[in-house]
# Entry
Amino acid sequence: MNLNIKGKTAIIGGSSKGLGKACAVALAREGVNIVLLARDEEQLLRTKKEIEALGVEVLALSGDMASEGDNRRFIDETIRKFGRIDILVNNSGGPKPGTFRDISDDDLDNAYHSVLKYNIRMIRGCLPHMEKNGWGRIINITSITVKEPAPNMVLSNIFRAAVVSFAKTISKELIGKGISINNVAPGYFKTDRVTQLMKVRSEVEGISMNEYELKAIQDFPNRRYMDPQELGDLVCYLCSENAKSITGTTIQVDGGLISGIL
# Structure
């Protein structure tokens, strides 16, 4: 299938590894030029070389997703190098896990800035460039907690659900300008984030991480942690010309885990 996005430019948050990197790889395979964003400069450079080998141009920018100044710099440097922004994939590290009794005011502020405010700022900054060309794709990587809140992930429940609400709110306005906005809600992929959460839960239950992992996958309908590239391929499709009528949606990639109808 020809997705008709060759030569476009994508900014991808948290893309030095994990789900963000999987999105970058999938888009690069379709000929999209990539802007990688992450904190770890050394890992960024390794990922940059990997993706350049796919035959596209890559700009790697180190910075903090929660920083207003860095958000502005990401956009300015993208325009300076490529002269356009066509695709924005918002993806940042998950907030601190815990119940509502565990979180402090600082935890609350950090989650707000790194998840909700980061998404809004990046969208607001990229939209004028998409509107200028009459074409754009915005994808927010959220979590299955937007479909079914988890008791030990209260900050994720709050702010990722707010991202979904914001996307739905603006989707009708944007589609008339040739711009779609969608959310992808990952289930359990074997990433650093999931490893962190498994460590917390294994400590709570007093068992090893290996024991907790074996226990956890028994509750998964597909009996496995998923490959990040499965999510990357969906994001790539949603960024394509073929998906131009899909907007305001939240699609989970969860191996059948969530039981809700919507």
